[in-house]
């Protein structure tokens, strides 16, 4: 059985490979689960990716999976060890979002995506670490501590799905599920050298991915999505097919999901717009090299590659709109006294100040009328993207301007800085690339694209047309064959 491959070596096999081995009787789910647990117990002290282990129930689930397979059952993830971001409700385990007052909160039922994982036969090893309130692109909090980057423990694994990305890079399970509103799937993938997919807004039901004590009700969130993380593009597609579809309590009553096929099967048939410059923040040399590596591979394979298009919506306005929509929604529940203080600060801003910092501050006191106006402008951008995707099949661009940066635990995000080629910029300005896909709700696949001079992973994102998620996923799969994909940290 497992000895034919060697102890610990199953841990870096893909979900697709593990499924084939399970079907062939080369290994059991119990063996895979025991090996994953052994690896976590051996290596996670240095990484701190798995913040809530659930090993006893995982072993029991693996045993049930083996029994089901013995009865002739076969489901998409039957017997595959996986992890789940801490922010998803799992009955019997704490859901804290890293917030100390809720360290003992245990929800009564599973999130809809956890239910789908289990129905597909997955074995849940435990939960992965997050930042406080999911409000950072690093993953640390007072309850569970700091998740370190597997490639350099002095650097962040990213956030808010940083624990999931680090877990995958370390071989702690074959798949994970995360969420994304500010690059929270894509940035950790970029920093840790793995794959992630931000689905089209609304494609995957999010019920039960809620803060502690909040009722797990079906809702249409703005900007935020839940999505898959993996070590290969094909595994992303496998997991997306499990996750995708409307909530059975709402749209699922009437609708079945049928995603359109990828626009092309051959890399040479793709029409791709490549971007590596943003008007509001420079792109570091390591990330620029990653973008160019992908662009060169596309050209080598005969794809049509362009560097500019008059159809591209204005990047400065897109970043401003994203900032307005993101901040106004996240700040809406501020206490009244804080809101009044913010109003005073906004009144003191120079009207000519159009920086993203000023946009963030103004968005904190948005009226409903202000939000409607921003939303109307978003619809114009969505129309612009539809026109662009009539001429192109995908857009290749950065996820953030740099590889993983050193841990920075300054509690005031507005005081933090990001170093790009020796020059400091406002920390939150690096979100502009993630927001490019998030603001209009487009699907985006994060893929590994090489290493920096320091040996850190570098990723890029492939943005696709709305609800045509299979198009960037297929392009990711083809590029993986051309330029390589995941490599385990040394």
UniProtKB/TrEMBL annotation:
Coiled coil: none annotated. Residues 31-471 form the Amidase domain. PROSITE patterns: AMIDASES. It holds the Pfam family Amidase. InterPro entries: Amidase_CS, Amidase_dom, AS_sf, FAAH2. This is Amidase. It comes from Streptomyces siamensis.
